[in-house]
Specification:
UDP-N-acetylmuramoyl-L-alanine:D-glutamate ligase; alpha/beta; six-stranded parallel sheet; binds magnesium ion; binds adenosine-5'-diphosphate; single chain; six-stranded mixed sheet
Length: about 450
């Protein structure tokens, strides 16, 4: 993007402070640590920090100006003063998309699988097109406008995550970027802290499909709960495409062989649910004109996103790191994957808390313990965290199960094991990947 400060201020509904209006902005950033010369810094209030405090820092490092609320401006730091930086960013993103970008918008929603599907689709579309995608570790509210503002005028497609946790967020995201293609991964239990029922979640998510226009494309998971609800939201004359879990021929710690529309694919990725996401990506890429043989080649070269069923070999253990995040749906998916993997040895589960599940949290954890015990009766279960004991409670029939106060105790325990596959998973806040880091150090 390229705007003068005057144009940007007008589009955001802001006022210039210590700026002439002629300065050129060539990008945006929300992180003063990584900001580059020529970028505009948005001072956004996060959970831990208030970005407005770093306005001075950002400008010192070469930012053209900061965007901050008027009452939080820093004396003498060139700024655009706005009502609310997050909303200002949304306004600017909408204006940029409408007036400068030719890219079509591919929107992905669902309770799980958005990021995976987005990354896979980005890879496959990039075979033929110029594509930008939502960057990692940002929620939709900031991530979506941020991605748009960093997209190139050359881009053919933007692959965006419409991740929501509050009722008004989907409307907000759609008002910035109405989709041309909408993809549903799967609806399930997630973000129940702010959206009360599954029905409520589905109503919000279905808005992405309601927003499609004639000739647009809706892509639906044939096996998602509440499928008919989503079908009903799709306007007339929208093309509807379905996908489902393809036929899995073999899954091991080497990867997966599967068959989709008469083509056999080979990929280093594992997990039926990941392969399902891949099926969605393949179908969309094919629909948008990417050659099947080239897709097949690319599929062979895929690597998992960090901490999403990432396989590493550490001494006597094979580690399957799925510690990116967790909710009941994705926990079950991990357990299913573990069950699908051909392996003669111990399958050891190291599980931490699933967060943000509201008052029924203990029950959800107990249910997962129970699910594991039923699916993999000879599994080993080690847990930690506030709800660690609930997993154990649910997994009554497992022979080997134990709760630990911290990661170090689990490591101690592992040093006595004679090997196996470690399945490691918890919500982001638990940072369970530290266990894997420490395990690496010990080898
Ligand atoms: N289709 C799916 N069904 C069930 N679980 C899934 C699916 N896709 C991904 N997961 C699991 O959900 C978790 C989050 O995946 P991710 O792609 O980051 O989803 P999101 O961006 O929607 O939060 C991961 O642990 C992953 O293994
Ligand atoms: Mg995500």
């Amino acid at each position: 993007m390229k705007y003068t400060t005057k144009e940007a201020a007008r589009l955001m509904g802001g006022k210039l402070y210590r700026l002439s209006g002629d300065e050129i902005i060539e990008g945006v950033s929300i992180d003063s640590r990584t900001i580059k010369k020529g970028e505009m810094f948005f001072g956004i209030k996060g959970e831990r920090f208030d970005g407005t405090q770093f306005a001075h820092d950002a400008v010192r490092k070469g930012a053209v100006c900061a965007v901050v609320p008027e009452f939080k401006r820093t004396e003498n730091v060139p700024s655009i003063l706005v009502d609310e930086p997050v909303m200002a960013m949304g306004r600017l993103a909408r204006a940029y998309l409408n007036s400068r970008l030719k890219a079509k918008i591919i929107g992905i929603t669902g309770s799980v699988g958005k990021t995976t599907t987005k990354d896979l689709l980005h890879r496959l579309l990039s075979i033929k097109y110029s594509v930008s995608k939502t960057q990692k570790s940002q929620n939709g509210f900031i991530g979506l406008p941020f991605t748009i503002l960093n997209a190139s005028e050359k881009d053919d497609y933007l692959v965006l995550e419409y991740g929501i946790s509050r009722p008004y967020e989907m409307d907000y995201l759609i008002s910035i970027a109405p989709p041309d293609v909408a993809i549903l991964t799967k609806v399930g239990k997630s973000h129940l802290e702010f959206l009360n029922t599954e029905e409520e979640v589905a109503i919000e998510k279905s808005k992405l499909f309601k927003a499609l226009k004639m000739f647009d494309i809706a892509v639906l998971n044939k096996n998602t709960p509440m499928l008919d609800f989503f079908e009903a939201a799709i306007p007339k004359m929208v093309r509807v495409i379905y996908y489902e879990t393809p036929e899995i021929i073999e899954m091991s710690v080497q990867g997966t062989v599967f068959k989709l529309d008469e083509v056999t694919y080979n990929t280093p990725l594992i997990g039926k649910h990941i392969i399902t996401n891949l099926a969605a990506a393949i179908i969309v890429a094919k629909t948008l004109g990417v050659d099947v043989d080239e897709i097949k080649e690319e599929v062979e070269k895929l690597t998992p996103s960090p901490m999403r069923l990432e396989i590493t070999h550490l001494g006597k253990f094979t580690v399957i790191n799925d510690a990116y995040n967790a909710n009941p749906e994705s926990m079950k998916a991990l357990i299913d994957t573990a069950g699908d993997i051909n392996f003669n040895g111990k399958k050891i589960f190291i599980l931490g808390d699933m967060l943000e599940l509201g008052p029924r949290s203990p029950i959800f954890h107990e249910e997962i313990g129970n699910y594991l015990a039923r699916k993999i009766p000879d599994a080993v279960l080690y847990t930690t965290g506030r709800f660690g004991k609930e997993y154990i409670k649910g997994a009554r029939s497992l022979k080997v199960k134990e709760y630990f106060d911290n990661i170090d105790e689990i490591l101690e325990k592992l040093s006595g094991e004679d090997g196996g596959i470690l399945f490691v998973k918890a919500s982001r806040g638990m940072q369970l990947e530290r266990l894997i880091e420490k395990l690496k150090e010990r080898i």
